[in-house]
Design a protein that fits this description.
With 253 residues, this protein is an alpha/beta fold. Helix content is 34%, strand content 13%. The model has no long low-confidence stretch (mean pLDDT 93).
């Protein structure tokens, strides 16, 4: 019978679509990368989606985050995501967690309940904890490396973390993961050297932060506010979603 996933089923077949419908995926971080990942997963037929992010939408998110609009500024990202994703597929089960994932709260999540984990956060300690806990739970995970301060969406590729080069974040991750005994981690990364953001304090969040009241991690507290655009983070998010969907649908787990 014709349905909203019929075009996808033409590629994967009915059994694969059933696997997707029965799958549970956790997306940690639904910003520039994770928001596009989450939407692509829902549009592909994933049955259960856990969204983990404690941030609220800021005006500066509108240039790259799919759930960010003028109407949603100031609202929790997970709330805006839920509303939009249910409009796409009313049958999907969405679990929201208004939390910022760190080693301190890692015990609040049972990774064995997921079929796949998406790491779209930008804190090294959190990314390491996600990889370690995913390995312990024997749950597949894919991690986004640096997408900020880059302009070439065609330069991103999928690789094991230990096969990466150039990317500074990947270098740190390789060192730390080795210390923690993580032998493999699928990542999306780019060898494009990161640009240095323009030193324009008139438009910098460092001096002109407009984050909603109650925001825990304001840009004024960051060492450097990265530049971003409308095409690099979404590309990374869609590459990640593609890997998750293919792995589940084609039974490559």
């Amino acid at each position: 019978m014709l349905n909203q996933f019929s075009r996808t089923q033409l590629l994967f077949g009915s059994e694969a679509m059933q696997r997707l419908a029965e799958s549970s995926v956790a997306v940690f971080g639904i910003g520039g990368v994770g928001s596009y990942t989450a939407e692509a997963l829902v549009r592909s037929g994933v049955g259960t989606l856990d969204l983990i992010d404690d941030d609220k939408i800021c005006l500066t998110n509108l240039n790259r985050q799919v759930f960010a609009t003028r109407k949603t500024v100031g609202q929790y990202k997970v709330d805006c995501a839920e509303q939009r994703l249910l409009e796409i597929n009313p049958n999907i089960k969405i679990n929201k967690y208004k939390k910022f994932y760190l080693p301190e709260n890692q015990d609040e999540f049972d990774f064995t309940q997921y079929d796949y984990i998406v790491d779209a956060i930008d804190t090294v300690s959190g990314k390491i904890a996600l990889a370690v806990n995913a390995q312990e739970a024997n749950t597949p995970i894919i991690s986004s490396m640096g997408a900020g301060n880059k302009l070439d969406p065609t330069a991103f590729e999928v690789a094991d973390i230990y096969d990466t080069s150039v990317c500074p974040l990947a270098k740190v991750m390789r060192r730390e993961l080795k210390k923690h005994g993580v032998k493999s981690l699928k990542v999306v990364y780019s060898k494009e050297p990161a640009l240095t953001p323009c030193d324009d304090m008139s438009i910098s969040c460092k001096n002109n932060c407009i984050c909603p009241p109650g925001t825990a991690r304001k840009c004024t507290q960051r060492r450097q506010v990265p530049g971003s655009n409308a095409f690099v983070p979404p590309t990374v998010g869609l590459i990640i979603a593609g890997e998750v969907i293919k792995d589940i649908a084609l039974n490559r787990l």
